[in-house]
Amino acid sequence: MNQPSLTEIDLAIAGYLDHLIIDRGLARLTVESYASDMRGFSRFASGRKVRTVGQLGREDILVFLALLARQGLSPRTRARKISCIKSFFRFLIERSEVRENPSDQIDSPRFPKRIPEYLQPEEVERLLASTDPASLEGRRDNAMLELCYATGVRVTELVGLDLYRVDLEIGCVTVMGKGSKERVVPIGIPCSRALMSYLEKVRPRLLGSRRCEALFVTRLGKPMTRQAFWKIVKKTARRAAISKEISPHTLRHSFATHLVQNSADLRSVQIMLGHADIATTEIYTHVAQHRLKKLHASCHPRG
Asked: Residue by residue, what is the 3-state secondary structure of 210-275?
């Protein structure tokens, strides 16, 4: 069976995806998401008999967005797709493949800021106290959960930590974030203690005679995976009788929310979270404001 021939748009998209991987160092899952969005846009352009990037105009993009809306895609999903298209055209302009950006002046769909799910401090304490102290895996799980909450790292960053990136003497970890950007995050005394216990009494026994550079390992001596840690969080939440639907990212949200609620400045929280844009971090001010409104409504005589 003959494969459909690639259009100039397809080749430009391939170059764009290479740029995201090589020049910008984006994570594999992020690039796969961009690739999926751009393939959909390419199919749409082909259906309109548009085969070159120079033929793509503002009207094409507006019709594409209208089609996505008719398909019932959420404003958030449509905003992500238009953001991808805008990034694609900026790439083409930088390489002088097009003269004008047809996505300029096209606004992203508006959607309400979603307040992220997070745990109350007492729920975090219950979660951390619900690992099994009698088993090697339980003590490892406790160290992982402590580190996740103490630093707000993403799950991929947590399982990707190598042993040498932990400095218990200073009390910090060096995290490799999105775009291969490093950041140093303090870990606090409870987390330092949990990590020291894990490193001295648990990790050597999990490894046995095997060698592994990863900080957190399984009983088989292999690095912990994202999926395995997701299951650990779910299992421990059930033990802690936490009814909320939580994930590793819930601990990240809890970390940031509790900092903002306790008057941490937003710029510091942004640095610790590894957000490229402080606008992303600002959602946690909305969380704090939401809590204050509830507090006022329940406690004030005229609330």
From this structure: CCCCECCECCCCCECCHHHHHHHHHHHHHHCCCCCCCCHHHHHHHHHHHHHHCCCCHHHHHHHHCC
| Chain centroid to CA 33 | 13
Residues carrying an active site annotation: 154, 178, 249, 252, 275, 284
Q: What percentage of residues in the chain have a pLDDT greater than 90? A: 64
Least confident of 166-170, 256-260, 262-266: 262-266
Largest CA distance in the chain: 75
Q: Has this prediction a pTM greater than 0.70?
A: no
Structure tokens at 204: 């050597």
Structural domains of the chain sorted by starting position, each given as residue range(s) with its CATH number in brackets: 8-94 (1.10.150.130), 121-298 (1.10.443.10)
pLDDT band at 17 (very low <50, low <70, confident <90, very high): very high
Mean pLDDT of the chain: 89
Q: 142 to each of 136, 196, 202, 213, 240, how far by Cα in Å?
A: 10, 12, 11, 20, 13
Instruction: State how far the Cα of 229 lies from the Cα of 217, in Å rounded to an integer.
Output: 11
